[in-house]
Design brief:
mainly beta, Immunoglobulin-like, eight-stranded mixed β-sheet, four-stranded antiparallel β-sheet, 2 helices, 23 strands, 8% helix, 44% strand, elongated, SbsA Ig-like domain-containing protein, SbsA_Ig, Cu-Rt/internalin_Ig-like
Length: 306
């Protein structure tokens, strides 16, 4: 009986070893990433297309060189593209001449791809406005994060936090921006507004004003003050609204007269509206039909929010 059991056990072990030996081998990436296409988009931007997904941590400007027989074309920024196989290069203004490009990239297995090729530069002007494609909004958040459609002139950004709070800028690839509290964390029971009043891309194209809100609160049911700003019985085409008077608590961009503020109760709040050559102010609440009538005049928005 014991001998029969012993032989059966040996047979099972041998069978398992045989099956394990016949299993498929582990896949080993033995192919280097290859450059497939160089595509100048405009006089400042070039797309590089590769044969496979790349390791984005290796995408650095020092890994690329663009030059002619006489000079080197300065690379201002290198960013991941719209797909994992694509890279975007942002350069100083190109001419419609032949350029050489050398580079080094890594795939997800850290295999290196080294390339050298040439292309004709583009003189098509960059006229596309930068836009914010992803951003933080809502509760359980402790900082602001923004992602732009293209690299930004990081020195051009002008922004405000309401209620006022000092933040530290942290840029990634000149396309992603994190605004973190400089010292203490954000107050748990406060809604914070981010207002970006000015932004430019590397070609000087301006982005539109932008507003978003966050709060660290974990249980949060916002209340909204909605209303309309009118000038000469016509909805204000565009402008800025401020929540508060001496202490600004929030901000709203205005389009076709409509404004929106996120608050924590149904109390009455003082609202100021700034348009081109017009201004108005009144109290408003989430329970009211709020219409703010504007009068001719110029008010300095910067002097109020600074």
């Amino acid at each position: 009986m014991f001998r029969r059991f012993k032989y059966s056990l040996i047979f099972i072990v041998i069978t398992l070893l045989f099956c394990a030996h016949k299993g498929p081998p582990l896949h080993i990436d033995r192919i280097d990433p290859k450059l497939e296409k160089v595509a100048p988009v405009n006089d400042h931007q070039i797309f590089l297309y590769f044969s496979e997904a790349l390791d984005t941590t290796s995408i650095k400007s020092e890994n690329f060189l663009i030059y002619t027989e006489q000079e080197t074309l300065k690379i201002i920024a290198v960013t991941p593209g719209n797909t994992s196989e694509q890279i975007s290069l942002y350069t100083q203004k190109m001419a419609k001449i032949e350029y050489f490009i050398d580079g080094r990239v890594y795939d997800l297995s850290r295999r290196v791809g080294i390339f050298k090729t040439k292309f004709i530069g583009s003189i098509k002007p960059d006229t596309i406005q930068p836009v914010i494609t992803n951003y933080s909004k809502g509760f359980k958040l402790k900082n602001f994060s923004l992602e732009f459609s293209e690299p930004i002139d990081t020195g051009s950004i002008k922004y405000y936090i309401f209620p006022k709070r000092k933040m530290v800028k942290d840029w990634h690839y000149m396309k992603k921006l994190y605004l973190n509290p400089e010292t203490d964390s954000l107050n748990y029971d406060t809604t914070y507004y981010l207002f970006i009043s000015e932004i430019q891309d590397l070609s000087g194209n301006r982005g539109a004003p932008f507003v978003t809100t966050i709060t660290p609160d974990t249980i949060y049911n916002p209340i909204f003050i909605r209303g309309k700003a009118v000038f000469n019985d016509t909805p204000l085409a565009s402008g800025i609204g401020l929540l508060g008077y001496e202490k600004i608590l929030g901000v709203s961009t205005i389009s076709q007269g409509e404004f929106l503020f996120e608050v924590r109760d149904s109390s009455k709040y003082f609202i100021q509206v700034f348009g081109e050559n017009c201004y108005g102010a009144d109290s408003a609440s989430a329970l009211d039909t709020n219409i703010i009538k504007l009068m001719p005049g110029v008010s300095n928005l910067d002097s109020i929010i600074n």
